[in-house]
């Protein structure tokens, strides 16, 4: 599993935890618990990478902690 930065927060609007991988545009998932959101994001990250490769697009290398997060 690539080591992309993950941000997890509670969304009152969605009444769930939201997990994002900011280095992968639009890559996010949610869940009823913190751990479920993280687990769902791990699946979405793999799917994001597979889709990008299938479409011939580049996949960013993980940079680690972002300065703005």
What report would you give on this structure?
- The structure is a single chain.
- It contains one helix and three strands, in the order βββα.
- It has 69 residues and is an alpha+beta fold.
- The protein has a domain of 48 residues.
- Strands 1-2-3 form a three-stranded antiparallel sheet, covered by helices on one side.
- β1 and β2 form a beta hairpin.
- It is globular.
Rg from alpha-carbon coordinates: 12 Å
Average pLDDT rating: 92
Give a count of the beta strands, DSSP E runs of length 2 or more. 3
Q: What proportion of the residues form beta strands (DSSP E)?
A: 15-25%
Helix content: 25-40%
Order of H and E elements: EEEH
State the gist of this model:
30% of the residues lie in helices and 20% in strands. It has 69 residues and is an alpha+beta fold.
Quick tags:
69 residues, 30% helix, alpha+beta, single chain
């Amino acid at each position: 599993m690539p080591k992309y930065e993950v941000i997890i927060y509670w969304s009152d609007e969605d009444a769930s935890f939201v997990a994002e991988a900011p280095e992968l545009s639009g890559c996010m998932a949610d869940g009823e618990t913190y751990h479920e959101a993280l687990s769902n994001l791990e699946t979405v990250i793999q799917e994001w990478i597979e889709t990008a490769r299938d479409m011939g697009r580049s996949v960013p290398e993980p940079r680690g902690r972002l300065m703005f997060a």
